[in-house]
Amino acid sequence: MKQIIAGTVMATALLAASPSSWTALDGHAYAAAEKNTAASHYIVNVNGKLMTIRSLHRSGTVLLAGSDMAKLFSADYRYDQKHQYYEIRRTSPNVRIVLQTGKKAALVNGKSVSLSVVPQRFGQELYVDAKQIAALLGGQWKAEAGVAIVSTSGSFHPFRETWQVNGSTATIHGLVLGQTSFYSVNDVAVAFGATVHVDKKTSMVKVEKGNRTILFHPFSYVLNAGGKKISLPTAPFIQNGVPYINLSALVYALGGEIEKEDRFIATSGFIKGTSINPQWIDQNTLLISRPDEASSLLLDIRSRTAIRSINEMDLTLSPDGKKAAYVDENGHLFIIDLSSNVVKQIGDDDEVKTDFVWSNDGRSLYCIYGSNNEAIAVVSLETGSINKLIDDKVKYKTDLRLSPDGTKLLYTVANEGKTNYTDDQKTDVDSIDTSGTDPQLFLVDLSSANKQPTPLTSSPDNKVNSAFLSNSEIVYVSAIDSETARPSLKRTRNGNEQTLLADQNIIDAVVVKNRIYVAIETNGIYTIRIFDPSTSSWTTMGSTKNEITSIAPSPYDNQIAVTIATENGEKISILRNGRWIDMTK
Boundaries of each Copper amine oxidase-like N-terminal domain copy (predicted)? Predict the structure, then answer.
């Protein structure tokens, strides 16, 4: 605060040489007791930049130096000694003003214009009426609260904008000076629940919210927020009693953050840190994982704020979005009610359980079971009992999926390589034969009595992102270990295979509501496309230069939650109607 006041004192000292009030800068104010000629300087705000300009006080009238006025407007200034006139010329807009000492008329683009105040010469300089010259040069000059405000491009342009403040609509008014926008401090304060006070004597502006106090002054580029100095890109000003300032700086000083493209203000700032694995609870709520804190958040996408934090991370959401399942470090299964936050332990089995899949009725959970992922089991959430459906001892099962009608399970198995030893004791490895270890898809009919796994594929390629497209159709991404060959998206039905998308750098593929969503990278551009099986057509939803790492389409509408890599970890964004909207930072 001391530094801001010091800046005010310095600015006031510049004005002390003049006996007139420092609001008297429009060429029509009169000094209280001025009879002799006196020269001084004033500070002016030109499109948000503070500049000084020489002033002249003669016979009670305040005039400004013509050459300084020309400089403010990026105009040329010269004196024609032969004809004894001064010329101010500006190219955009095209204006030529010819002035003479003691003449109450000027030539403006060849036409005579009456002047409200006669230009006066002092030394080698011509002093003019700033307000009228500014208007003739295509701008506007107005003085208030100790500073003259100047727009060099047209008059002050008032505007009003609609912003989202924590998801609620707010109107913020502003003024444009030149090409620079300034926003009403009063309107921003209302959005934050803050109060504003302008000191009539010093023009100091005070904004208070709780224990937070913000101070700034029209003579300074520095804003003081609770003792912390924040540099302002443009100088604030006061018009008609309302202070105006750079919006981003004020929002930051109040503890908030801003997204200009979305016209969104988060009064408490955005959620920061690595955020992954978005799951749709409902149309307006995401469940996200927070690896840095080993926790999860319920995120309101309208306000972009956390509804609740959960001290567990790898949660699997139920089909109705009301519950989630997880296992603790001891292998015990728990179900959390997301509305009440009540946690219930299911049984006391401590075997390893992964790849949870909820049954359609929400009464049981399928999982891959065992320390070597060798079995598939179903857990009753009512009794806690565990029934092994597949116990063929084949290790490393992954990517468990349930068909839309709940009658089939799909999973992937990659067989172990054969290890060859140099000795009978098998202590020295000679080589490992990986032939025949390529991952394959298996299908289990839950309605059958024996529930024998049926192999669906045998091709020597990697198979990832497998999913049911319908009860009888399955899609997956096929990739081979090659620097030249890129992945393909394939669909299989009753042993017949079809390539839907060939030779593309597929980042992720997901099936939601019988449509296939894929994220593809091409020459550094990431694009999300949708395949509609009913029309066999592709639709592009949006593209970005940001690195997409995964996608999670909403089952409720056309929104897509996306994880994007940043320098500080992954963040969550939403693709909505072709627009990318950051949910976290």
Answer: 51-143, 165-261
pTM above 0.85, yes or no: no
Burial (0-12, 13-18, 19+ Cβ within 10 Å), 111: exposed
**Is the peptide bond prior to 233 cis by the omega test (within 30 degrees of 0)?**
no
What pLDDT does 31 receive?
34
Tokens of 580: 């990318």
In the chain, what is the straight-line distance between the N-terminal and C-terminal CA atoms, in Å? Answer: 31
Tokens standing for 59?
Answer: 């016979």
Burial of 522 (0-12, 13-18, 19+ CB in 10 A): exposed
Cβ-proximal residues to 482 (8 Å cutoff; 6+ apart), any chain: none
Question: Contact at 8 Å (CB) between 403 and 432?
Answer: no
How far out from the chain centre does Cα 95 lie? Answer: 43
Relative to beta strand 264-266, strand 157-165 is parallel
Backbone angles phi, psi at 423, to 5 degrees: -135, 160
Round to whole Å and give the CA distance between 358 and 23.
72
pLDDT at 20: 32
Beta bridge partners of 173: 160
The 10s digit of each residue's pLDDT in 68-117 is: 999 999 999 999 999 999 999 999 899 999 999 999 999 999 999 999 99
Query: Could you tell me the strand order of the sheet in which 454-455 lies?
Result: 397-402, 408-413, 440-445, 454-455
- Per the listing, tokens 């049926």 go with 454
Whole-number Å distance between alpha carbons of 230 and 303: 26
Question: CB within 8 A of 54, min separation 6: which ones?
Answer: 39, 40, 41, 64, 65, 68, 125, 127
Q: pLDDT tens for residues 254-284?
A: 999 999 988 999 999 999 999 999 999 999 9
Residue 171 tokens read as 């109107």
